[in-house]
Design a protein that fits this description.
heterodimer, A: 463 residues, seven-stranded antiparallel β-sheet, B: alpha+beta, eight-stranded mixed β-sheet, 25% strand, protease (chain A), UFSP2-like_2nd (chain A), ubl conjugation pathway (chain A), thiol protease (chain A)
Chain lengths: 463, 471
Amino acid sequence: MLQCDFIFRLKGILEFACQLDNPNGVQSQSTISKSFQDLRSKVTSKNIVFTVCNSPVLIWPNTGFQSSVESLTEASACGDILQWIESDDGGSKKSSKKKDKKKSGPTVVNMKLLFEVTEPAGNTAPSLIRVSTQQHCVKMPLPLDCALSVTTDERLETVCTGLVEALNKQLADMEEVVLQYRKGSSFLVPQPFHFQLPEPAGLITVVYPAGVPDSQLQAVREDLHRKFELPCDRPYLRRANAFHFPDAAYKDGYLRNPHIHLNPPNIEDAKLYLVQGVYSYHHYMQDHVDDNGWGCAYRSLQTICSWFQQQGYVETAVPTHTQIQQALVDVGDKEPRFVGSRQWIGSIEVQAVLNQLLGVTSKIMFVSQGSELATKGRELANHFQTEGTPVMIGGGVLAHTILGVVWSENTGQIRFLILDPHYTGGEDLQTITDKGWCGWKGPEFWDQNAYYNLCLPQRPKTI
Amino acid sequence: MGRSYFVDEAVGEYLSGLQAAPGSCVTGLLAGQSSPQRDFVVLAVQTPHRESEGQLKAPKGVSPLDDIDVEWVTEHAKQVSRMLPGGLCVLGLFLVTPPELSKDAQNGLKRLIFAVEKYIIKGRLWELSEEDVTDRVTLHICSKTKKLLCKTFDVKDPKSSAKPADWKYQTGISSSWPMLTCSVEVDLQIPVTGSSSDNTDKCMKDGLRRWAKQIEAAYCLINGRQALDDSELISGQKKNPKTTNRQTLPARIFVSDEQSELGERSSALVQVCSGSMRVRGVVHCRAYIHNNKPKARHAAQAIKRDIINTVCSRVEMFLEDLCINEGSQKGLCSGQQALPRRVFAPMPISGLSVCDYMFPDESTADVAERLKEMLDCETPEEDIDTSLENNQLFSIISGFEITDSQDDDSSKHVSEIQAENHKIQKPPKYYAVGSGRYSSFMCGPCSSHCSPCHSHISTVFQLMEKAKMFV
């Protein structure tokens, strides 16, 4: 993947407004297009200004590049902008945070779109224009959101010109979506989503109509998959697949992918096979549910469900303990009194619930002794390579989640990346990684005499 | 510890020169700027004489204090506040009484100051912030001894009692006050739902209010620097009272279309309207800020408030005028009409400027008349600056239909045939061109722009009362 140091993200609201005499008439489409044309003129006019968030920097991109800060000129590299930005912790962005063991990806520079209302072209005093025909007055805020990936030495001026072009293109895309989904005077707000696609496409933006579920946008995605030459068996462009900007916090408070902060064990001749995509860490005591001692398999199941949700396969929320239990009753696996109990579940139940609630099928792998797990390197490596889903493993009296293996085909040496649902503390990444609640374990981790069942969820073949 | 009012010496001269008829009172306004630490008074204007109408008002109470025409004083205050650029406002009132009435003067002043404040803020599109000073000054002058008694009332609290305040004279208080300027492009599309004229007013107010919020939230640069925080407006400047150079600081305003009520919508807001109104053009704005270590954001606030006030005032004046011209037909007509444009003139004494609004068929003579009446000062016509806003290119009377897809070039329509617009009905003899109750009128009987035409003014007021101009 091409190294990209920066993502410049420009956001702003532009109000779309038009007056329609007859929303169902033939004229209305051209009236709507004219309004979009006016908005495109607005963003190419001299009046637009980019402000860099948390900084005194203002840039006028359409006046041959002017900025409010003398040292930033057309020739400046875009990285120069960093010295002007105050980061939230008060220090300059150059001081590295000691918490992150690894670099967390490109630096995001957030910008906001503004319009200057001073320095007008003329100075004719205002008039009042009154129209008294019956009209439908349409107003809609367009949530513009453009992102550009660039390297440090890219010129700031080029970035700004690129952002103006992106605004123009986004308005054209929005016009298309608005016209396509309009019914009379009912207009759907066009919403932009960013997706990080494999190179060479990189960071792209797609506009979807608000309120239309992903299931109804299949044809749109098929076109885009063809256009960007994406595999046709896994989702890349569902709303849940939207790119998560490195500087944005997750509103639900769960940790994402704590494993990326760990260094894999250094085993000679071994390769790394990891879960693909994003999951949330679910564990004991979360969501005000005291499941200490009995809920570990439920939590592992929740982690797996979170994976399917965040990869865009399902839109339903991660199920609660009660919902999981109800699902088992619904499929006839358990009696109704199971709901509300503190009974354990195993891999078979996990498989059943994934099928019932998410429509996901899973393979079950049976291991008669814990010591045998060390020999399952190839199967697990294959699983992570093709499916890349988290694996739930239950045996003895414990359940865990396997997120990956380091395995040598030659020597057979193996290590397991384990996410432990038995953790009862808060969402403290430092503790979780230091104390091994997410950590690499050797084959001795398993109860050598107990038998184990593994549930290996399979990706549905869909986009 | 009370407030301190630093007052220009020329104001003192004006106050000493006031003539009160024996046994009667003189009321008037005090204008200037308040800051958290101290207040500045740069202008004093006595309440203009109001010709009484046919019915002679019998003296109501036992004292001339009761005869003070509160309505008239508040109207004068409103007219004057429209003439003040940003940063300046009506700070209080003065009252000259004969010695025997001095005791009761305080009550009279209290009544007046609350009434004035209430009337001035009516229709205003911005709210006072936490930091705004809500103390207003009342100055009592004894006509015999010339003794001054200065007190303040907190107009936020109707139960507040008078607090003592200092009244200090100084020369050239505002001579070095920086002046912020900008010209702002306004283009507001306002849908009109319903068909009555009340609806039109309400829709207009709502539309303007939304725009005002945008301006208040806007990003502001003053003299090239951000005006956000507590940083000083002019850093590193030595305060030199001897210098009379007034700095002009250009302001730049940047808005975003973010509207919280449209927020997280998934579909467009569609209203069925009986029509729409569009306010379009450029307004020239000014604000002054004191030079006692002013903060950048207070300066930004002052210029933003001026932007909002100037658009609001013109629209108000225009709609009031329309009320007389069209009566109940207002809001049903089509057309493009010029809003009154802003002109500036030097203020008496302080070297600051005041403004006024000129309808298209008025001249600087009319403006001069109004300045004389409202601000009690003679202004040579050549000193009135009409160059800051250009005259609109068509007359107030022409009307023509405008369709959906109107293009931007309004000058093309000047040569349009003046459409017969039967809906605009002029009242038989008079029509008002101007604002508020005390306006400049084109006087029917003598067909001249006498503003005001004193010999006919009583009849005009009767007409205005009929048209329900008084609220």
